[in-house]
Amino acid sequence: MAVAALVLWLCTAAVGSYLLATSSRTRNTSAESSDPVSVAAEQTAASEKTAASEKTAGAVSTTPARPLRDKDRFDPLSLQQAKSEPLPGLKDLAEFAHPTLAMIGFGFWFGYIVSHNRLFLAIALGIVLGAICAGVSWFTANTRAARRAAAADAAGSAADGEDSAVGPLSVSRHLLVLHALGAGLTLLFVVLITARV
């Protein structure tokens, strides 16, 4: 039964990988203009000449961010900009944590099958629970972002906190349901094996 859980876990991961590979990010088309903008040749040549002179002079085209605290005033420009950028949110964390936890849990489950050590079994159970929680959080945050993007498109403005060029993931519902069912069955098998041992 442990090997069946491993195969089911692998199939669930394969469906999730395919789902992630075939998903597309929805774009906010209202931010992009549909009419091409004509630019004079002199303006293009002047902007290219300015960019080339900035590159050779080593000048940075961005203005330095104002330090938030007095002790930050001696920080280099790149560090000031990094400190002024917002931290990634729950969606970004879950987008990283879900596949990462799934791969780590798969490794511990394989370790349990090879060694029959109960410690690997307990760790794999905890990690599969964490991976499922991260996946549910990712789905919830992505659904909320899609609703905000749809509301912003209806209102004609950009969504708050979302990049105007990159929006939430657009995925196939059938594959998403198949991935969720595989994850649920994997969790059921792991819990049954843990309860039996």
Helices and strands in order:
Layout: H1 2-22, E1 24-25, H2 41-57, H3 77-84, H4 90-115, H5 118-155, E2 169-170, H6 173-196
Antiparallel strand pairs: 1-2
Question: TL;DR?
Answer:
Helix content is 68%, strand content 2%. By secondary structure, it is mainly α.
Describe this structure in words.
With 197 residues, this protein is mainly alpha-helical. It folds into two domains: 1-23 and 87-197; 42-85, no CATH class. The protein is 68% helix and 2% strand. Strands 1-2 form a two-stranded antiparallel ribbon. The longest helix is centred in the last third of the chain and has 38 residues, at 118-155. It is flat, with a radius of gyration of 24 Å. The relative contact order is 0.18. Mean pLDDT is 74; it is low at 26-44 and 158-166.
